Amino acid sequence: MTLLETVGALLLAALVLGGSAFMIKKAIESNKVTSAQQNLSTFRLDVKDLYKGEPDFTGLTTAIAVTNKVVPDGMLKSGGTVRNVWNGDVTVAAGTDPTTFTITHNNVPEYACVKMATFQAESWESITVNGVEITQGSGMVAAISEQLADANTIVFTSN
Fold this sequence. Notes:
43% of the residues lie in helices and 18% in strands. It is an alpha+beta fold. It has a five-stranded antiparallel beta sheet. Helix 1 (3-50) packs parallel to helix 3 (110-117). The longest helix has 48 residues, at 3-50. It is elongated and about 80 Å long. InterPro entries: Pilin-like, PilS_N.
């Protein structure tokens, strides 16, 4: 093999390795979004189930959710803290209207924000991204995209 052939083979190997690393990164990011969406859905349903005999969600806190074991296992960390897949705090609380409750996800990265905020959008009372309420329906993706930061806070309100 000549030096030119060897360099060519090394460049080709580097390109293949670089492409593989990119695809692995994308797969990991996609898996994190899917896990976060599943946890959000489970958390919401479990909170609703916990309060199904109550007239409203008055008194609901993250501590009550932890004590009553309605936090998905993948979100519960040592010491009773609740975190999302990006290690951001997750809190649950009664809403400003006591017939609603909120699940707040902090530290959601830019690449995941739109996917998280549009997840089951029609089933939420409201969704805010970085403090701005996002109107559901046509134009939702564009509205979320205008609010994006490196780390985002999404508040899901349910009844």
